[in-house]
Amino acid sequence: MGYNVPEENYYTKDHEWAQVDENVVTIGITEFAQESLGEIVYVELKEEGQKITQMEPFGVVESVKAVSDLFAPISGTIIEVNTTILDNPGILNDDPMNEGWLLRVEMDSEKELASLIRAHDYKKLLEATEEAQKNV
Amino acid sequence: MLLPDPGWKGSIMSELKQTPLHGEHIRLGAKMVEFAGWSMPVQFEGLRPEHLAVRRAVGLFDVSHMGEIWVRGSGSLKTLQWITSNDVSKLRPGEAHYTLLTNPEGGVIDDLIVYCFREGEEYLLCVNASNIDKDYKWVVSNNVGAASIENESDRWAQIAVQGPLAPRLLNDLLDVPMDLPPFRFLERTFQGEPIVIATTGYTGERGCEVFVPKQTAVALWQELLQTGKSYEVAPIGLGARDTLRLEMAYCLYGHELTDQTNPYEAGLGWVVKPHKEFIGKESILRTKELGLKRRLVGFKMVDKGIPRHDYRLCSMEGLEIGWVTSGTHSPSLDEAIGIGYIDASLAKQGTSIGVNIRGRIAKATVVKTPFVHQKGE
Asked: Backbone phi, then psi, for B284, in 5-degree steps?
């Protein structure tokens, strides 16, 4: 364990985080996600101005081994894409919670936040997942 | 995001088989996943460092999930000649070869290595984990020489020692001659148990695969790690095993080879010996004479993106011309590489092709394989 799970963020069960600042939401993947993926070598994201929809894919991250879809924690319009990570996907491994942010989105409705997980429950989810992993 | 390892998500863990080295993997902090019904280490330190350790120094792989089927008795040669595509009569004791089990339609039941222990009398077949039961049944039901067939997969573990420093490690610990050529094997004893050391592998590097009785596997694994310290030996997971074989464009059953694959299309004509009779020979040769429709080729991405199993390949005009069988980001080259079947007319080096990556057509170029050349020592 020992993952950095900031209290103020929202999380999805699919290991994305969302940081809310009024109606602007910054989205990324969690430390657990990057560690599970291993070395990230490719990132593909929707573009600035495009819409994303809660629980629908907005891009992919690829490790050497596999492709993983990214799911939107909330719906809204993309106002900024972290283009630095498109050229240097390794940043997602080094600092997924800060430098490795993916999108800034103008949120459609605050109501959607209610269906996301808070830090306390996300930590519990990680514990349960790690427990399951031990049994392989 | 959806995490990629289906193994620890869905499977019924209690039903997975464990190799004798399972406890060693856990102790070394491996991440375990399900593979062909087994709990196997997918990575230890990380896929990339493990991959590079094998290319630079030496790595240890637990390949105990592979199957061992023995064919013994005076009819052994007759049976093996009938069921496999390569010429077993060429093998002398201590020699091995790569070959195929083929079906009457000329497709591939499995790819395997045949080891000759006693000429005409005793052979070992090393088969893919996912095909053990299917292969065993096939051999038994096509046993034209009335040989004795035994599936001893549960009695044997297997450790692969691969990398440019592997010959030195094997020489230190097991007295294997440094200059033993590829596809040879020796019988030795280790802690009083018989072991078989074969100069075969799945990485393109020098080294061996060691067959060891199950109960002795942990001791051998530990000795290899201990003696290997001076060569910076590292345990390697299935993740790097796959990227290493892909850089060599070696076939993986279920990806490049299926029961529909013609061996010539897969580039395996060199293990098809038309001067002898074997199951499926007529169909295989007929397909070849009619002209091969498709060929297995290697390609490198020009545009961004990574090709993956089952992605479609298309011409630059957008016509579908084939499919990707395996693809990855090559740790040695730091480039996206793939192999796949394409229309024979386009299978020339330097041809530009497209890969349909989630609806976007990304450009790639057909290249010569292997992607990586072994430097040796």
From this structure: -65, -45
pLDDT given at position B12: 52
Q: From CA A94, how far away is CA A99, in angstroms rounded?
A: 8
Provide the pLDDT for residue B6.
43
Domains recognised in chain B with CATH numbers: 7-63+155-247 (3.30.1360.120), 67-150 (3.30.70.1400), 293-367 (2.40.30.110)
Residues of chain B neighbouring A68 (CB-CB closer than 8 A): 1-4
Q: Which residues have a Cβ under 8 Å from the Cβ of B143 and sit 6 or more positions away?
A: B75, B79, B149
**Structurally, what CATH architecture does the domain formed by A10-107 represent?**
Beta Barrel (2.40)
Order of strands, sheet of A67-71, starting from the edge strand that comes earlier in the sequence? A40-45, A57-63, A67-71
Q: Which residues of chain B have pLDDT under 50?
A: 6-11, 376-377
Q: Given the structure tokens 């009457």, which residue do they identify?
A: B104
Interface test with B, best of A40, A58, A65 (most B CBs within 10 A): A65
How far apart are the two ends of chain A, measured CA to CA in Å? 18
> For the range B18-23, what are the long-range contacts, defined as Cβ-Cβ under 8 Å and sequence gap of 24 or more?
B19/B62, B19/B64, B19/B65, B19/B157, B19/B217, B20/B64, B20/B157, B20/B214, B20/B215, B20/B217, B20/B218, B21/B62, B21/B64, B21/B157, B21/B159, B21/B217, B21/B218, B21/B221, B23/B218
> What number is the ipTM of this complex?
0.82
At B2 the pLDDT is: 64
B-chain residues within 8 Å CB-CB of A37?
A: 3-4
Contact B250, B60 (CB under 8 A): no
Q: What is the pLDDT of residues A23-58, one digit of tens each?
A: 999 999 999 999 988 899 999 999 999 999 999 999
Provide, as residue numbers in chain A, all residues whose Cβ is less than 8 Å from the Cβ of B308.
67
Give A23 to chain B, closest Cα distance, Å: 23
What is the average pLDDT across A99-103? 97
Q: Would you state the pLDDT for residue B375?
A: 62
* Residues B31, B15: Cα–Cα separation, whole Å: 18
Q: In the prediction, which pLDDT does B154 show?
A: 97
**Chain B interface mutation, best of A30, A64, A67, highest count of B Cβ atoms under 10 Å:** A64
